[in-house]
Design brief:
The chain is built from 17 helices and twelve strands. By secondary structure, the protein is an alpha/beta fold.
């Protein structure tokens, strides 16, 4: 069956259907209604890639792909059906076997935590994740630009919240440099971040970030590691689920080197519930998905979409999917009939198969298969019975999963989160330094003001003291009451003596008839003057 170069899928009317490893990075599609056997088909293809030494990443939406870690059992309830199918298609090599599995979980509950940084996610995918409008997306891009220019690492949601608050404070300055940045737009983004955080997004953003090389490992036997993402809880946040897987594809595209055509892929990526990736996606995001799908082939990565309806995948992307497995569809609605016509038109015609009729007649475990041949051309569509799986079909017990996680080669590497200095801490330090500088400036201003006030007070007191001294000096210069009395008496006496002297001189000169009076007056004058001088 050519196991060295291909993976056996099943047997159809035209013989075995094998997926060529050299063409496996041309991507593929597994589609079909619920309960038609998509999961078993996916499980068998994943087992084939692992056995060929190709690492795989697959999202486990329902929890039953975890059974890949354990071998199937002849005592299981489905063993008889699997054995009958193996006999029907002549699959003599079928036997039960386990696979090397590493469990991952964005929330760190059912596997090793997967983290990335806000910077690595980028504004485009974050805007998609938060459902931002074009204006808000532009503001978010400006926040990333400012963080890059100022050397501020955006690692977790706390860093982004701090960065947005910083942009709001400098809205006027940033608007002049980059365009309109309003507090209202920043506030809207911050509210969406809070919702994302409440959905568990805070567990996804941080460090240690996922090392892509840890997805590309093989075990000691050369089997490719099957990386299983526990997505049953994650499906409650479909935007987070789709954005994470798109981010992972983008990281693979950015990280892996160009290898061109290789004998087998370096990694095969299975995107279950693929419609979540495309629902309500803006054109810019669809363009991003198409670009990654188109170009990641050259990095040696194959991408396979699993979905219920083939019309879930946009035409531009569906055109890149060379390997197709179409399980049964039901023609209950107009959309179902549209899907049937679309599926029939995408297969290479086979005269022996009426695709439109066969799609609604396919039994469980049967599919229409068209795979790329060694020359790159698609094989004619064939009605194929899919091979039975070698591993367990169904979930693990909690104990089994715990043992697998504890014995994983990556145990302990990602389990403890690391919070190193980044935008949140640096901006807080800046704010603290600014506050401290403002406090010091305020203190210095207060000290200077106190000095000025003290100088003014001292000057005022000096002026008061000077005025007091001047008043005292003036007061001291004033004559006392006794001096005033003496001066007054002296003035009075002088006036009286002056009159007496004048009268006496007049009498002496001109003569007088009353000499006795003159004599009495002269004695009186002498007596008064003598008394005054004695008193002093």
């Amino acid at each position: 069956m050519g196991q060295a170069t291909s993976i056996f899928i099943g047997r159809g009317g035209g013989g075995p259907q094998c997926l060529e490893l050299r063409r496996a990075n041309r991507h593929g599609l597994i589609a079909g209604a619920t309960g038609t056997g998509k999961t078993v088909t996916l499980q068998g293809i994943v087992e084939g890639f692992s056995a060929a030494g190709v690492p795989v990443f697959v999202a486990d939406v329902k929890g039953d792909l975890a059974g890949l870690a354990m071998a199937g059992s002849p005592t299981s309830s489905g063993h008889a059906a699997w054995a009958a199918r193996a006999a029907e298609i002549g699959y003599s090599d079928w036997r039960y076997a386990d696979n090397p599995v590493v469990f991952w979980d964005l929330f760190g509950r059912q596997g090793h935590p997967i983290r990335t940084t806000v910077s690595e996610m980028g504004p485009l995918l974050l805007a998609r994740l938060m459902g931002l409008n074009p204006v808000q997306e532009g503001v978010l891009a400006i926040a990333f630009r400012v963080a890059d220019e100022e050397g501020l690492l955006l690692l977790d949601l706390g860093d982004l919240q701090a960065m947005l608050a910083y942009c709001a404070e400098k809205a006027a300055e940033l608007s002049a440099r980059y365009g309109n940045v309003t507090r209202a737009s920043v506030g809207a983004i911050q509210r969406q971040l809070l919702q994302l955080e409440s959905q568990g997004g805070d567990a996804f953003f941080g460090e240690p970030a996922l090392d892509i090389d840890d997805l590309l490992t093989v075990d000691e036997g050369g089997r490719g590691t099957i990386n299983i993402l526990a997505a049953d809880t994650l499906m409650a946040s479909p935007k987070l689920y789709a954005t994470f897987l798109l981010w992972l594809l983008s990281e693979l595209f950015e990280t892996l080197p160009e290898v061109g055509d290789v004998d087998k892929p370096k990694l095969v990526f299975f995107f279950d519930e693929a419609h979540l990736l495309f629902d309500d996606a803006p054109k810019a995001l669809l363009d991003k998905i198409e670009q990654v799908v188109r170009l990641i082939r050259s990095k040696g990565v194959g991408v396979y979409f699993i979905t219920q309806n083939p019309v879930d995948v946009p035409e531009d992307i569906a055109g890149q999917l060379g390997n197709r497995v179409q399980h049964g569809l039901r023609a209950f609605t107009p959309r179902d009939r549209t899907a049937i016509r679309a599926a029939a038109d995408t297969f290479r015609a086979n005269p022996g198969v009426d695709v439109a009729t066969a799609i609604i007649e396919l039994r469980v475990g049967e599919a229409l298969v068209s795979l790329l041949q060694p020359d790159g051309a698609p094989s004619p569509v064939d009605r194929t019975l899919i091979k039975p799986p070698a591993s367990r079909v169904g979930p693990l017990t909690d104990k089994e999963r715990a043992v697998m996680i504890a014995t994983s080669p990556l145990a302990g590497k990602y389990d403890t989160a690391v919070d190193r200095e980044s935008a949140e801490e640096l901006l807080a330090d800046r704010a603290g330094a600014t506050s401290a500088a403002a406090a010091r400036a305020q203190e210095e201003a207060a000290t200077a003001k106190a000095r000025i006030d003290a100088a003014k007070e001292a000057g005022a007191q000096a002026k008061v003291a000077a005025r007091a001294r001047t008043a005292a000096e003036r007061e001291a210069a004033k004559p006392s009451i006794l001096d005033k009395a003496v001066q007054s008496a002296a003035r009075s006496a002088s006036s009286s003596i002056g009159r007496q002297v004048a009268n006496e001189l007049g009498r002496q000169i001109f003569g007088s008839r009353r000499k006795s009076s003159s004599s009495i007056g002269g004695e009186l004058v002498r007596g008064i003057l003598g008394g005054l001088f004695r008193a002093r």
